[in-house]
Write a structure and sequence with these properties.
The protein is α+β, with helices and mostly antiparallel strands and 226 residues long. It folds into three domains: 104 residues, 2-Layer Sandwich (Phosphorylase Kinase, domain 1), CATH 3.30.200; 41 residues, no CATH class; 45 residues. 41% of the residues lie in helices and 15% in strands. The strands form two sheets. The chain has a five-stranded antiparallel sheet with strand order 1-2-3-5-4. The protein has a two-stranded antiparallel ribbon with strand order 6-7. Helix 3 packs antiparallel against helix 4 and helix 6 packs antiparallel against helix 8. The longest helix has 20 residues. The chain is globular, with a radius of gyration of 21 Å. The protein starts with 9 loop residues before the first helix and ends in a 9-residue tail after the last strand.
């Protein structure tokens, strides 16, 4: 049976809002936002007009079944939960990337500054000049990330704690993951199964063409290893 999400209510989130925004404010309402398939994202609205954004990690907010607790030493394991979130927030802030302020960190939730003003998608459609300026700032942030390098690879929480990730190199980790994905796809779709060997061979050639490196840049996990 498919898992059905139970969306949280103002009553559910009132204790979290009080911890993050103070006891003198009353939570008037919540608005569910888009924000991933492993957590719930809610805008908190208080009686004095103050707002904040809450991230909530719980089984009811997770569409994925990852088979227990993810191993943070696996670069491809689920990057989910307050600890990994806080580590990424602190690292981005340290390298000068503008990040919503972390207002509160709990055992299963985080509350951050609500950055309003619309989305980049809306700006591109309605005000290209303003969007160009925003994209310029985004470019600066990406360059700041690329300038921050380390000898280790993996999740920021692991690297910053002096730990090591599984695998011998980024290339090996990515290649092995891609090969597992091909095998899984081949089991699901006969069209992939028909070209499974060719796809695996092509992956091997692509991996062999990647030059070894001793430094790794800071990137968001979803764009891929750098």
């Amino acid at each position: 049976m498919d898992r059905v999400r139970r969306h949280l209510t103002a009553a559910d989130l009132a204790p979290l809002a009080r911890a993050a925004l103070g006891p003198r404010r009353t939570l008037n309402g919540v608005e569910r936002l888009r924000g991933g398939s492993r957590k719930g994202v809610y805008r908190l609205r208080c009686d004095d007009g103050a707002t904040a954004v809450a991230y909530v990690w719980s089984p009811e907010e997770d569409y994925w079944d990852h088979g227990g607790h993810p191993d943070p030493r696996d670069p491809f394991s689920a990057a989910s939960g307050p600890a990994l979130f806080a580590a990424a927030h602190d690292r981005l802030t340290a390298v000068g990337v503008r990040t919503p302020r972390l207002l509160h960190l709990g055992t299963d939730a985080a509350v951050v500054e609500d950055v309003t003003g619309g989305s980049l998608e809306e700006a591109l459609a309605c005000d290209p000049a303003a969007a160009a300026a925003t994209l310029g700032r985004l470019g600066e942030a990406v360059r700041a990330l690329g300038a921050h390098t380390t000898a280790s690879y993996g999740k920021v929480a692991v690297v910053d704690a002096g730990g090591s990730s599984h695998g011998t190199s980024c290339v090996q980790v990515v290649r092995d993951r891609a090969q597992r994905d091909v095998e899984e796809a081949a089991r699901r779709d006969p069209r992939i199964a028909a070209v499974r060997e060719e796809a695996a061979e092509r992956l091997g050639h692509l991996a062999a063409a990647v030059r070894p490196r001793s430094r790794h840049a800071l990137v968001h996990g979803e764009p891929g290893p750098v």
